[in-house]
Amino acid sequence: MTRFFVTSRELDGDFLVLTGENADHAKVLRLKNGEQVLVCDGEGRECICTVSDVSPGQISLVVLSRQESKTEASVRVRVYMAFPKGDKLEHVIQKATELGAYEIVAFPSNRCVSRPDEKSLQKKLERWQKIAASAAEQSGRGLVPRVRVLKSYQEALQDGAQTDLPILFYENERATTLRMALEEQPFRSVSLLTGPEGGLEEREVEQAKNAGFRICTLGSRILRCETAPLCALSAVMYAAGEF
After folding, report:
1. Which residues have a Cβ under 8 Å from the Cβ of 24 and sit 6 or more positions away?
2. Which pTM does this prediction carry?
3. CATH fold for the domain made of 76-239
């Protein structure tokens, strides 16, 4: 069933009107009167609707039923990634959304080569959020992950430590595997924190440990900065019974 995203306020009524990009998309799909579509608010609620009128620039819908999204994961996973070079973060946002991430959070660390200024960050954030929305629509999600940017590594640690199981991945860790950390206790929320191309400094790892993070290895091979968070996210979803 074709899926559209609207605001929470728009989803409250018994009638909906799709305009802008949604209407353009509906036109490409050649929706006709009587066809059913799924309309989501991006926060976990969705409605099954039927097309009642197709006009230039807008599509009118009648709400048939409401429900909570059935495609969201039972565990809320927040992906914390240090700013990478180029467009690697865009790739992670897209794929993490498809895999079921609840949030994607970018932050600076000592070895980050990329350090976007506040002006460019605003434009990037808008683009990143659109990438998340597009991936959520394509993958059939009822929630669009929020993409956030934090100003410092310390903020990332404080923010990530609020979940049931905050985990930082470090290439020099040998004792604790991700599997061991996931089997230690029940969890409903997880933070996964990874570093930039040059990795995290030993001092930063100690700071994370003091903030309550479990320090884990992702195996004997060194993963690229854009591979590590997606690998970890997939493993958590598997452990939570999502696959």
Report:
1. none
2. 0.86
3. Alpha/beta knot (3.40.1280)
